[in-house]
Amino acid sequence: MTSTDPSGLAALRPRLPSPLHEAADERFERHGVRLLLKRDDLIHPDLIGNKWRKLAPNLALAQGRTVVTFGGAYSNHLRATAAAGRLLGLPTVGVVRGQELAGRPLNPSLARCAADGMRLHFTDRSTYRRKSEPATLAALLRAAGAEGAFVVPEGGSNAAAVRGCRELGGELGGLADVVAVACGTGGTLAGLAAGLPRGRRALGMSVLKGGFLADDVRALQERAFGGPRGTWSVDDRFHCGGYARVTPELDSFAGDFERRHGLPVERVYVAKMLYGLLALTEEGAFPRGTTLAAVVTGRPFP
Predict the structure, then answer these.
(1) Residue 156 zone, left/alpha/beta (φ > 0; ψ -120 to 50; rest)
(2) 42 lies in which domain range?
(3) How many CB atoms are closer than 10 A to CB 200?
(4) Which of these, 47, 59, 92, 248, could form a disulfide with 52 (CB 3.0-4.6 Å)?
């Protein structure tokens, strides 16, 4: 790590801007819609897609301190944070939702986190839900032996992450009329919308049930920029039953998209976004002549 790059992130050599590829697909073309794929999954082999965009500014702020973050048992965010710790020589701690996992063999996702040096701390779901409360957070940090650590929220979405994701909108510039992204915590959508030029809009596809995501995006923009930025909306019809739920229909769609375009389609986020975009296109939601960019925020983990 150097004085000009104290975080060491430049040494990781991210591929930025990420590639933008046209996907010739008659299902969109028959409605006069042009589909582009923004391949954020190719930014870095370990810090994939929006994980790079959200983690990089937070890791720079950590300045070598232990990084603590949160996630479920199959969290891609935990895996990316653990990989960043290994690559940068930063200690990492993952607070994992669900005490019932403690004492059992780790699933492949958490095993990868542990192999990358992340120390795992399991907590019950009730405590986990209150993790943003100052007293609960302090207790969790004490229990994990991580007092004084730099804390990154679940999913990595905070003001620094939102400002990092603003670059995504800047990279796309005026190349697309509508830019779509799958949303879990809303940070990528909040930053993307802020970075798009006037006259372009961002569309978030929620992978969660509940209808609360729009409020979260507004709150993130308030914290990052002091108020609303850009034109954006959230569609919460395509979550397929909730987070990490994959229906046979969605799986079949994703497999077909892979065969058509040679793109490995991650099921929890990316497949739902692409499935939703096709449904909206067939509903006539996009005027003929629309150029639609779909942000590929991740790829299937082995």
Answers:
(1) left
(2) 9-48+157-295
(3) 21
(4) 47
